[in-house]
Amino acid sequence: MLTALWFHLFAVILHLGIFKITKMTRLYLVRHGLTFDNAAKILQGQVQGELNPVGIQQAEAVRDKMKNAKIDAFVSSDLHRSMQTCEIIAAPHHKKVETTVLLRERDWGSMTGKFIPDLPKDPKDWPEDVETIPHLKARAQNFLTWLKVTYPGKTVLAVGHGIVNKAIQSVYFKKPMNEIPRMDNAEVRVLDL
Asked: In terms of pTM, does the model score above 0.90?
């Protein structure tokens, strides 16, 4: 009897609009395919980059895997390597790719373009022009907020980069970035916002 009363009360609350159930926004978060600079171990940061033949095959594999998925929108970093990946994945859906600077890779400042094995491992030894973790995570939070406001209850595939995608997941899971597993090139992870 009590269960029926609660059910009736809940139905009245929904009918009156006092409490609304909204569908979550689903995010397919993708890292761009392998680039020439990834293969050469060059720190790309916010340079454009270009997919190499393996990266193109990786993007095509994601495209083939996702071709029948219901995806309402495609979003990409405004850097070429992510746009190239996203355009390949979006092709069977015949949808335009929207770009945003919020998905750009971390700005590595004067370390950009350098051979990764030669770079200092300890962040205390990095130059001051490297984008800070708090700034990166604020950008990640802004992206998630923008996504929920712009695409409420929709399914969105977004292509970003290794570190910014890690920051997005760090904010989403409320965990430090070092606890978020590294994403491989063209890897897809699902977040329900």
From this structure: no
H/E element holding 30? strand 26-31
Contact 105, 46 (CB under 8 A): yes
> Tens digit of pLDDT for each residue in 1-20?
555 554 444 444 445 555 55
Determine how β-strand 73-77 pairs with β-strand 155-160. Answer: parallel
CA atoms within 13 A on the CB side of 44: 25
Residue with tokens 């029948």: 68
Token couple for 153: 């209850």
- Which residue in 93, 105, 131, 161 is the catalytic one? 105
pLDDT over 70 percentage in the chain:
89
Quote the CA–CA distance of 90 and 71 in Å, as a whole number.
9
Active site residue 60: no
Q: Whole-angstrom Cα distance, residue 193 to residue 185?
A: 23
User: Considering only CA atoms, which of 139, 36, 132, 148 is closest in space to residue 84?
Assistant: 36
21, pLDDT greater than 80: no
Enumerate residues 6+ apart whose C-beta is below 8 A from 65: 188
Q: Which residues have a Cβ under 8 Å from the Cβ of 70 and sit 6 or more positions away?
A: 155
Concerning whether 135 is annotated as a catalytic residue, the answer is no
Supply the mean pLDDT for the chain: 92
CA neighbor of 183 nearest in space, from 25, 77, 56, 34: 34
Q: Which of 32, 93, 131, 161 is catalytic?
A: 32
